[in-house]
């Protein structure tokens, strides 16, 4: 994960208090330019009491031309107010203003990118330092313009000891609904935020304002996940289709919504189309994704070092690999086998469910449904998209003849963190392979084995190659069962550390058994303590994968002894999630201990819903169908913030997710994330400085901010969008007639 940019709101610089300490020296330039510096290509001069920089044109990146001051002291956990006056001529230039490390690896702790005007503005931003250092810098990065321009700055200040900035989100009307759509025959629930304790009347109005249904609310007391006093509204008895409905209660009118299955069919496609624009190693064609076209990233075309001939980190190996292709993991340019594995599993599982479940509709995932370069090849588009990642995963396997042959490298990414915005094709950093890990190797074994059975009807040679790689990976992991990624390996990319591989062994054995039917894999499953453990108690994600194996063993036909017990365990887990959903005033199957929301909580909510959906496929009971469908309400607007977390869906929706190339908030020439992109969501740990400066003391659902700088609450990621794609498909399948 990387740092990003702040809200571009210009406000007056606040006055210092007695407790505030100025960190910048000579910020008003009354004693000349010292200790400010400029890069050699920038001419700096004093003009009317301010520092002005003549910036050359033709530079590639913003850091190619800069003005700054080093030797700034920062204290971890302390809040700072960065303030300055700035102007630029001609109009329209967007400098990158950073507080970061002045020495390698040049980490960025805070950054903003305001568009400066000829007349000038005053800017002020508050953030919390994530580190202790005496080697920080305040820098104004001015490069990246084709034409020369002039930048002037004055009254630069970095005050320590300021109070954190109070963030008060605009939550809109107090009636919280799924802002996208309810199924005509599905559950329809809403939440009313109110201090009233008695039951209140509600009305459902159609697009013309006519009341079409009415009833009374149900008081629910204080919702611990938000701190709000709330009541529930259930209008499930209304079945007529339409658009532009609203709910009215307690003098408030909700945001509009539809009663229709149609939006879920579109969301199923959009959530999957997200992956094409995440692709590495291929040009993204604007004709296929208007507004998102870009050159291929990391193919070795300058300034890229490329992924076609990548060395290991120093001391890790003496060979180089072509690891081009695959999906960029999240908002950075890294590619990680463990997160790629769980995302690939979920796409393949979505396709396999469409073939096996009573309500599955494989044609909706068929050839031509996603408008990708491979469309028209007589292979389902979802399999074509997943194969783009699978081919990368196969390339990450250590070659034959090497000491760790068959293992998989944990990840590949830049040697150092890069800033935002940065298109993949403009990344200048050296790429490095990181050490193999047991977990990465078993992710490869599991997904390649899963692929072997699903691609066999379309490409027998690829299916055979995948199964061969899976079996080699299984053998290698058995020979090296405790090679774990290091917690400290987080420079230039996420660590994705995990100190237990027993869950990955269980998952890989399940996929290999389902594909081959071999007794050795059944024996491993039956002997594993995880086979009878509650693997759903804490949900599943890239670091908790035993549930993936359990779900496939329950839903993919097989002859494993005791399979009925496996299926019962899924239903039992679904019962637990349903009980949580029924007890929750916002109707979601997620209630972490102490309401401490996880990083990527939106994905966790949807994955819990997936378990409920699988219980429906197993039993056919309507309660599971309705519970899974209702779980979508939270991410589409029925939440404390009264916003959809899916870009392009809902009247108020996330659209400034953290990303280096979906960076419209920083550079108007770049797009927002594509329609159908899921934001990570509320995260009680608020690890990034931007969120720390605004969300201190937040309660559960309120630990979120839609800003590109908040990488801990607002990033996009391939595994999170896989959860959205799976659940969108399930709900669409329930609504399609």
> Which regions are unreliable across 5 or more consecutive residues at pLDDT < 50?
1-18
* Shape descriptor: globular
What's the average pLDDT? 94
- Describe the oligomeric state of these chains in a short phrase: single chain
Our count of helices gives 14
Radius of gyration, rounded? 26 Å
If you had to describe this structure to a student in words, what would you say it looks like?
By secondary structure, the chain is of the alpha+beta class. 27% of the residues lie in helices and 19% in strands. The protein contains 14 helices and 28 strands. The strands form seven sheets. Strands 1, 3, 4, 6, 9 and 11 form a six-stranded antiparallel sheet that branches. Strands 13, 15, 16, 19, 20 and 21 form a six-stranded mixed sheet that branches. Helix 4 packs parallel to helix 6 and helix 6 packs antiparallel against helix 7. The two termini are 42 Å apart. The N terminus is likely disordered.
Keywords:
about 725 residues, alpha+beta, six-stranded mixed sheet, 28 strands, globular
